[in-house]
Amino acid sequence: MRLFVSEGAPGCLPVLAAAGRARGRAELLISTVGPEDCVVPFLTRPKVPVLQLDSGNYLFSTSAICRYFFLLSGWEQDDLTNQWLEWEATELQRS
Description:
Elements: E1 2-5, H1 12-21, E2 29-32, E3 50-52, E4 58-59, H2 62-73, H3 79-92
Protein name: Methionyl-tRNA synthetase 1
């Protein structure tokens, strides 16, 4: 898997924290890209964070990437975790 992040981009910090929780469960390469770099070939605008799975598929929602890492780490998600992810997405990442 490959995780693309950009310095100062919203959403990268929680994704990196979730990735740290899954450390050692799968091979993960973390790449820092510029905020204007298009990582996902079928998106018309640049978007980070992005997780490219080994299958070649992409996850580009901060909440989806965090949930993926939580599942990978074996951490049982609860309502509080889901509430935090939704709050983070709606309050901190307003576009």
